[in-house]
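agent> Task received from the user: take the single chain below, predict its 3D structure, and emit structure tokens. No templates, no multimer pairing.
agent> Plan: (1) validate residues, (2) run structure prediction, (3) serialize to tokens, (4) report one or two observations.
agent> Step 1 OK, no nonstandard residues flagged.
tool_call: predict_structure(input=
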Amino acid sequence: MKALVLERYGGPDHVVFADVPRPVPKADEILVQVHAVGLNPIDNMIPKGSFKPVLKFKLPATMGSDLAGVVVEVGAGVTRFQPGDEVFASIFDLGTGSLAEFAVVPESAAAFKPANVDFVPAASIPMVGLTSWQAFTERADVRSGQKVFIPAGSGGVGTFAIQLAKHLGATVGTTTSSGNVDLVKSLGATEVVDYKKQSFQDALRNYDVVLGTLRGDEIKKSFRILKPNGIVVSLIGPLDAEFGRARGMGALFVFLFRLMSFWIIRQARKLHVRYSFLFVHPSGSQLSEIGELLRAGTIKPVVDRVFPFEQAKDALAYLETGRAKGKVVVQMR
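)
tool_result: status=success, residues=333
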């Protein structure tokens, strides 16, 4: 079968199309004929080796994490799915990839695709949906009446996270350019800062939660808009000791991650706020709950552009520009 494969670390030049064996599902896996694949920023970071020490990734490896497709085969122990079922899933950090004609998915990572959502928009959801869900429900416990700041509201994570926070009853603040103000307001943002005209830390106050999606000093700046005991849930690091312990990494790695996050945690404590790093994990049960929100129309996928499979490298390059409004999706079929 055809797949987009990372041959070795070093950048996009080492990402190539290749013929690879069709995978065979294990007892607890399903084999999915892939119809669409949602792309995420980490798909461009992996070839550079940015997460090499912490990812379950053996080269050469098929790229991609999110998918929507049709089950064609099930393992002997699978009970929830059967051939012909339409599913969507994230297989991030599971040692396999989705940018291929077929992909194996653990039963525990898959969910039924809502019947009223086509394959392309369904494929755009898994990683951004699970990231937002885990940040707001597992880490921050977002509740009605709270205020949540989601930077870069017109991006892939932002367009989903705004809708989820609004569904949870929060008031949502975000940043975007002037051309995207109407988009983020239509999704549920009420406090919108044009980052080209004003700094968010000067415009916003008294927030309970910040979803940390921006690099550099933006995390440190976001502490200033939080209430006492507010929390920054960072998706981009620095990695912390809790992350190392959760993944069962050795004492040396835990120590290194503690050093990496020392300055940010110290700064947070001085300001009486909290810092937490989130590394998203696949979850079919959570994706099923997200699917119910999609089915009801409570959350609507936002897709910027759709590329055919043969242009998957162009899709990754477009995503890298940072100009996408919502998600970039590769259509396999």
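agent> Step 4: summary for the user.
The chain has two domains: 2-125+301-331, 127-277.
agent> Done.
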